[in-house]
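Support request, please re-run this one:
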Amino acid sequence: MTDFDLLVDSLVEQHRRKPPLMLPRRVANAALLGAAITLVLVLAWGLRPDIAAASATSGFWIKLGFGAGFAVAGLAGLLALFRPEHPAPRRLGLVAIPLAVIVAAVFKEAAAVSDTELAALWLGRTAVACPFAIVALSIAPAIALIIAGRRSAPTRLRLTGGAIGLASGGIAATLYALHCPETGMSFVATWYLIGILLAVLIGAISGPRLLSW
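Re-run finished. Output below.
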């Protein structure tokens, strides 16, 4: 048995002796801290001026739920990835839920408007800025989750980094929706998703460096 195997076995045993709620509490606290910082940034940036009227529409809640679904999937996956003895988390498959909802919403939208209107909804006014805004807003929750990860014992660092990107990108997309004036479901399905995927990619690339122990 190598020194690395002995180290992993030692960490596994330490985790087994810890209270079972310690890791979920650590992940939850990190996510809440990151989300709070991101919310402050969004409030400083400014809420969409018609947020009261928008909140009465289903599209507004689908947009919030889209990001929240990715955040939940990422955080659920991290509960396994932060433990060295757990198998690859199937919970990451929860991303299928927000994807299915948004696809259904896009088809419904496409059936209700003309091709010209659909193209206008798809591009909106902020298509170029949207993905990068989500990536920027994901930084605070990503840092908080990285710190939580370094206090744990992840061994699949690239996958863990990607899951951190998924969770932080989802949190950022959810809160960015409070600022974003776009109403098109095709806009959300494209540009929000690109922003979240960029956060996942950055997390997967940087995971081995930032999470190593």
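The chain has one domain: 21-210. The CA atoms of residues 135 and 147 lie 18 Å apart.
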